[in-house]
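From the shared-data thread, chain only:
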Amino acid sequence: MSLNSALYPPVTALNAFGVGTQVSAHNLANVLTDGFKAGRTTYMDLPRYSGVQAQVQTGLGPTGPLIPVQGLPRDPATPAWVPEGFVEGSNTDVATEMVNLIVTSRGYQANAKIIPTVDSMLGTVIDMKV
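Structure, as tokens:
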């Protein structure tokens, strides 16, 4: 077992869960932004060292709720399906994003604990060889 192959999976998982946390935080920061489409993170296994990679997809999901506005001119960027006097709200679901944050933080914590364990195991192996 080489040092690279032992540490590669938890390090890539830390990176992937960090990306997932950033996406959820971005979605929550824009929960009140009209027309915002929440991003989603999917995780893929990497074949060579069985690491993890995060893929971010933005601008997905259902339409947001229609919010009535009065006295504002129609924004040219507003989709044609939105009636006059309304704007499309954000499609971010706060409950879903909070659950995603909990999952990603627990995954991050678990993989962060793997690194000192691998370090200790490799230290034991080195001590046995000496």
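The chain has a mean pLDDT of 83.
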